[in-house]
Amino acid sequence: MEKRPRIKLIPTLGDIILELIGYLSLFTLWYLVAINYYKLPETIPVHYNTAGNADNFGGKETIFALPIIATILFIGMTILNRFPHIFNYPVRITEENAFRQYANARSMIRYLKFIVVVIFGVITFKAIPNSAGTSEGLGEWFLPLTLGFIFFPLIYYVVQAFRKA
């Protein structure tokens, strides 16, 4: 493996705002589960098919799986974001482009952290009324929108990596 420069990056105001929004979203996800847990019936939807319809059910305690997984992913990506020199890049990292590439990659991870929490939040937000029978499924647009919110920005950041090479 090539020896890449280690650079201390100072987050921009946009990075700080996105990071704070991510933490706020994670807190909101936990809050949503906490205030609704005792109102849930004993059986709730735990899995949805590609059409957004519930296709598996479990005990109401499984609602905690969503914020737990979101928190683990959020913390994991937060830790990973401290080491941009170990990321995979589509271009060769040099002393000249390291700062730009690292900043771009760290912004992408921050965005993905936020989107992961939002996706888990939407699933939780929809699972609560679904379990009460006042709503049905996630909706047919959930999967295409989720994929779009993940892959379009990824493509954007990869294109930026080539432009900043």
Automatic annotation (TrEMBL):
Keyword list, A-Z: Membrane, Transmembrane, Transmembrane helix
Superkingdom of source: Bacteria
Keyword Electron transport: no
Residue ranges of the TM segments: 12-33, 63-83, 111-129, 141-159
InterPro entries named among the record's database cross-references: DUF1648
Protein name: DUF1648 domain-containing protein
Positions of the DUF1648 domain: 27-70
Organism the protein comes from: Sphingobacterium ginsenosidimutans
